[in-house]
Amino acid sequence: MRILDLSSTIDASAYEADPVTHEVLTPAQGAQHMSEQVRLRLGIDFDPSVLPDSEFLSLDRISLTSHTGTHVDAPSHYGTRAAYGTPKHIDAMPLEWFHNPGVVLDLTGQGTGVVGAAYLEKEFARIGYTPQPMDIVLLNTGAAEHAGTQRYFTDFTGLDGDATNLLLDLGVKVIGTDAFSLDAPFGDIIKRYHETGDRSVLWPAHFAGREREYCQVERLANLELLPPFGFTVVCFPVKIGGAGAGWTRAVALLDD
């Protein structure tokens, strides 16, 4: 079995709409920090110079949103109320959702905006496979090529409401994308709303989660390396109490 990493890197040096801060305490600084903390909290003096190389352990302090890097959106991210009941936070989602057969649909070359149900149906015909209940559907939009740049947040393809509901009608519970969002970019959505006055263009993929319980995995990577189907996706979310999303180290399991 081969394991393919489908996760993007959380990197404080890369461009982010919500910037990441990453402070590193070196092992030497960690020794000083430990010495100060045991004196403050336990009333015990400890000289860190007795440690090998005067080093203890490194420590990383990171400030970021739960939507930075590859992450799973929980139903509670989509709104406070849902047609099916109280939306669950990420720590309450069933783990069975996140270890299932995967399907990749090709959205590359579709430009900035959305594709609809008709496009997805053409993809099913092209690959010779229709997603089954509990399959994890991954959208290869090509957006990962621009990860770490401003363009990653402004130029990509999302799903409209009909396309999202088509997948949910098939029994899909987890939909993933290599783009910043399963919806179109914010600027594109708002422009189309101003042009048409049609509220249905406002974040339809996310707002579908107010009617149907499902999760999104956003900011994936390496989807172009996967076959259309015949592999397994594992994307368990980090268990953050009361959170609308949790990071994941998403991978694909392939039989060689």
Automatic annotation (TrEMBL):
Pfam families: Cyclase. InterPro entries: KFase/CYL, KFase_sf. Transmembrane segments: none annotated. This is Cyclase. It comes from Lentzea flava.
